[in-house]
Design goal:
Helices cover 15% and strands 35% of the residues. It has 162 residues and is an alpha+beta fold.
């Protein structure tokens, strides 16, 4: 019985392929290749950026002092454009993390569309830790980021604010 079922399934599959092969594919016409047949861009949903269309920067924020942060501490990490020396750095993306019961190091992951990055941009990271709105720690050194993203996670070491 199974042999007969196998033969019937094979025959059905063969007939299906033969029917598909017998019909030639229709050549593309102006109607099938024209961009005008698509709805206007404003009506089409915007897909999320593909992996190659965004810059992803991951890493940790830490400090060397042996002190614990209270649960209400807020860690802020920013990816900025440092290109203009005489102006404040332009923030491209920011992530805020609540310390809660965690202690250093605090992990972060920043994502920004590559279209938002100017061709002349010099990218860098800034971090700060605040407790009840008061600045406790801040990054003081330059943490530059390659334009095509770092090859490994970046560690930002913050120092006590004065």
């Amino acid at each position: 019985m199974t042999n007969a079922l196998s033969r019937a399934a094979g025959l059905a599959l063969t007939l299906t392929f033969a029917a598909c092969a017998a019909r030639p594919a229709a050549p593309p016409t102006a109607a099938t290749t024209s961009v005008a047949t698509l709805p206007p861009a404003a009506l089409r949903p915007t897909p999320p950026p593909a992996a190659g269309d965004e810059l992803v920067v991951q890493g940790t924020v830490t400090y060397r002092q042996r002190v614990a942060l209270p649960p209400q501490a807020v860690i802020t990490v920013q990816l900025v454009d440092l290109a203009q020396a005489d102006a404040a750095a332009r923030v491209l993306v920011e992530q805020r993390l609540a310390a809660g019961d965690n202690q250093v190091p605090f992990g972060f992951s920043l994502r920004v569309p590559t279209a938002a990055i100017a061709p002349t941009a010099r990218l860098g990271l800034q971090a700060r830790i605040e407790v009840d709105g008061a600045l406790r720690f801040i990054s003081t050194g330059r943490t530059e980021v390659p334009r095509h993203g770092p090859k490994r996670p970046i560690e930002i070491v913050v120092t006590p604010a004065k």
